[in-house]
Fold this sequence. Notes:
Elements: H1 6-10, E1 18-21, H2 24-34, E2 39-43, H3 46-55, H4 60-68, E3 86-90, H5 95-98, E4 103-106, H6 109-116, E5 122-125, H7 145-154, E6 158-164, H8 167-174, E7 180-189, E8 198-207, H9 212-223
Helix pairs in contact: 2-4, 3-4
Amino acid sequence: MVGGGSVLGAKPRSKLEVISDKDSQVGKLFTAAQQGVDCSNVVQSQDHVRELIAENSPDACKIHSKLSCSFGKKGFHPNRKADYPCKTNWPPKGWRDRLHDVRIQQGDYKDVMRRNDGPDTLFYLDPPYSGTKNEYGPGLDKVKPEEVKELALAVKGQVVISFNDVPLVQELFCKKPSQFTCHEILQPVLVTSKGAAGSRRDLVIVKKKETKNEKKTMEWQSRDRGSHVRF
């Protein structure tokens, strides 16, 4: 769920960093950047994008061109005719150095989180948005917000999640009382050669840290389900 990696690029280095995505294309892009591959290309037309989509090459530079110059950067359909030629460059400046010592993994987010969990771990999740279908590729959009919430509460580490602002997500994460804090942000959408065509409201969801008092309360509740004592 590392997506485009913008959060990794913006945050300070940590002692141990792991990025992961179920989409193998994402892993290939970041592995190539880590290894020093430099991609610069121009996608000339809608037909050129269709050729890249049909080819489905494992080459990192072709993957980046296909994603960057397709509708919604998903790699399934061309953009508008006016959006070509489309220039692409990968990786961004400084990314080879930034990715030094970063562990790149591929797999389901649940397995990755359980494998890397600990009290000092910070997880950032950028799952497929709730309610979207067939926008991320076969098997990549079947992430249930209910399961994301369940695992976020189960792990020992701190968790930050990006989600779209829809009723189901609001109900699961933001309805009070909640074990999460929800922050609303506006995101530009349908970015084309003429700029953003509009905006959508998204959520940055942060798991609340458990205080010592809350921990003691939970311990007492587990010992005696009939009553509990707050300190």
